[in-house]
Every structure is written in C-alpha cells, then in structure tokens.
User: Fold this.
Amino acid sequence: MSANADHSDDHGSTPAAWTAVIVMLVGMLIAGIAMIMKQPTYFWVGLAVIPVGAVAGWIMAKAGLGQHRD
Assistant:
C-alpha cells in the first residue's frame, strides 16, 4: 500500500492527544468504580473530569503540542 500525501504518519500520537485520552479515561474509571460502589458524589466527580481532559488536550494543542496541520 502506498502512502497518501493527505495522511499523517503519526495518527494523532501527540502529547495533547495522549493527555486528553488519559485524563478522560481516569474520569471514566472514577465514575465506573463509583457506580459499582454506589457513591453518586464520586460518580459525578468522575463525569466532571471527562470534559477537563478534553479542555486540557485542546489547550495543549493550541500550545503547539498537538498534531501540526499544513
């Protein structure tokens, strides 16, 4: 298969992407454990962490740590 000029070889593996995904996964983990333990407060805390990860990734991308667009 030949490489297309429109595709990037890094597949989004950037510090901004990794940070966003890891923070969001931690939020899901917190929410999931809280559901099992029947702790609604921690469940909502876990859900609140998810958008924090998205915002952190966006800020890092704007700071130059994301995928470079041509």
The two ends are 23 Å apart (CA to CA).
